[in-house]
Amino acid sequence: MEFGPHLMLASLEGAVIASVLVLTSMGLSIVFGVMRVVNVAHGEFYMLGAVLAWYVTSLLGGHPAVGFVAALVAAPLLVGAIAASADRVILKHLKYDPDRTIVATIGLLYIIQQTTLMTFGPDARPVAPPFNHRLALPWFEFGDSGFAMYWPWGLSTTSYKLFVIAAAAVVLIALWLLITRTKIGLIMRATQQDSETAQAFGIPVGRVYSMVFGLGAALAALGAVLVVPIQQAHYLMGADPLLLSFIVVIIGGLGSLPGTVVAALLIGMSDGIISVFFSPTLAKIIATFLVAMVLVWRPQGLFGRSVP
Amino acid sequence: MLEVKNIHAAYGDAITLHGVSFDVQPSEILCLLGRNGAGKTTTLKTVMGILPVTSGSVTLEGEEMSSLPPHEIPRRGIGYIPQGRRLFPELTVNQNIEIGLMTRGMGKDTKEWVLELFPRLRERLKQTAGTLSGGEQQMLATARALCLRPKVLLLDEPTEGLQPSMIALIRDVILKMKNEGFAIVLVEQKVDAVLQVADRVVFIENGRSVDRATAADLKRDPQMLTQYLGV
Ligand SMILES: Nc1ncnc2c1ncn2[C@@H]1O[C@H](COP(=O)(O)OP(=O)(O)OP(=O)(O)O)[C@@H](O)[C@H]1O
Ligand SMILES: [Mg+2]
Q: Nearest chain B Cα to A189, which residue?
């Protein structure tokens, strides 16, 4: 394949990775932004979403779309509820102390991972995509004979991958509207900016925290449900998304939601492109290098405000 | 109306209040006076439930506040204007007011009422609270608390860092609220200003309420002021 079509193919792969990463990172970023909790178990909520998606589809049978739609609704709700309970049972009692919540979420990571292993076993589980048409893509060129359109061999994607990109965009817009346009969003932002004063104005801060922790986990689970028809569900699959989400949140600026979106697109796209042209390992190396650069030159992240 | 009886409270293990008592009635201004670090802010925070009451009681119209979940206390009708304003800095003026209205489910008429008290805020509804001037921030903090249509208003050093004209404006609003029947607890450093508006004064020292007097008595005999404040 020539360079142009090859780059387009790689960019499409990158866009799919970026779409899932945006959701996962937003979950991590919202939790940190509102609660100041670094949730080390975030990747396990993603993994749990994927495994539950497999479980739900395997229960339902029938056309793959039926199971998939059920998983798309059930997995984030279940994972969100589990996370909200973990907040009530564990984090609340640590009074959201930054150090102790890190240790506690490391514990939570292993509890979720091992429970999943014991319940569902170590096998990787495939989920059938709800639809999966192969779409050949055209390429345009100005050659000797003028403008020409042709269909390069191998330049194609699937309808499902395009759906993942569209779905992530829709969720992102919905999330944006929730935060900026609704009463719940206003309450979340007030709590984020000054929880003590928020409480003095009747905001039940504890319940807001549970909801936010649940929302963050549900976003990770949603990303996982979208990914699972492309990549099999497995009890160890939470490590990569955790690492990448951390990289994104550091580059974007802790707690900055626009920064998180931009950084997720940047990291996701470059991960996809570099993986296609070179290797996935190089992609991770470059992302990690980028984090190091950001930490050295702009520790508050690209979009974060500097700490005075 | 609001009755605080022998409350004790601590920041973690550090016991900070060792017995503070006072009460305030409708259409009355009660002032808490004391040196820096005496525990005035801590007293108000404890009434608001930000710090738990370890012993003693806080009752509003006979209902015990200290056993309620903290966010229910403002909903019972206690409006709080914290020291240093404590606005939600990245929310707009309008959104800060909305938060106040939400507390007790107040509506448009209440918003109109506070914006009439502070017309400057009406011109700046879309401005981010953190970018307001100090005086405007104090107006917003006051407006936000009034949005509860509270029975009791707690004000912690509302004139801190303000120029005289702004202090006069805040004082006028406080007096207006008194005449509307609010019970007001005022923490203030400026003794002259206190004596102008207060009905009664309670002195706080080392986390205890140690003495009390009417403002009229203090004007006649300022001995207590010398004793507890060194003025
Ligand atoms: N968050 C906190 N943690 C621990 N101790 C605190 C905290 N806030 C206040 N204190 C301590 O409690 C005591 C009372 O403080 P408080 O703020 O109530 O004083 P204050 O009377 O309001 O003083 P000021 O006039 O300076 O505002 C002080 O010794 C202070 O150091
Ligand atoms: Mg104080």
A: B91
